[in-house]
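Case study B.
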Amino acid sequence: IDNKMSDQANYEKKPDNKKNFTVCVEGNIASGKTTFLEYFKPDLTAEVIEEPVSKWRNVQGHNLLAKMYEDPNRWSLTLQTYVQLTMLQSHVKEQSKPVKLMERSIFSAKYCFVENLHQSGKMPDFEYVVLTEWFDWLIDYHQVNVDLIVYLQTSPEVVHERIRQRCRDEEQLIPLEYLRNLHELHEDWLVKQTKYKPKSEILILDGDNDLDKMLEIYKENRKKILCENR
Ligand code: DGT
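Model:
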């Protein structure tokens, strides 16, 4: 486990840190984000906000996620516009508990998924520019503060096998190549930090482990994740 998070001192700098600590869990498709959230759900100090994927699957009866996988050149912009909106809604949602735990963020949607569609030639420059201008404006003018990113680092081969086993209809079309590209974009953003510089602390956990080991790792890192030493 490569733990890049510096010590608690970073959090103590903030005057309003008693409340409103926001954690986003990030990682490739099938890296175990849902299990992570399930683990922390019973905690009374944490409010869990799941990814709005059910909304993307049913926009007034239309499955935008499936459309994107079937014909990315045609439907990527439509999906990513909607993903950006629903992610922003999760970010600005008022916190009911001291810690807000979110599945993904508006950042991974943009820095990993949109970037991948653009780089692989499925989203033309002009669509990418429109989304980028929206993104820049949204994050400048809205509360999208993230204090900690928990990155579940996986290998593309492992998540490919998990996707095959879990048999979600839309995802059976996902090739290993797509997961490799998404993996590299997560690494660029959260580890190498060449293009984007995350403002949040980053905690990297080895997501290739089996379930029992993951639960052990969550237990070990629980205080950091819930910022209990504040
Ligand atoms: P987990 O618990 O780590 O297994 O998480 P997943 O795989 O349930 O959740 P996630 O966010 O990795 O992916 C859910 C589905 O939605 C998956 O088919 C990938 C897709 N997806 C998520 N965010 C975006 C996005 O911004 N753009 C596109 N094109 N697809 C996305």
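The two ends are 24 Å apart (CA to CA). The remaining cases will be described in the next quarterly update.
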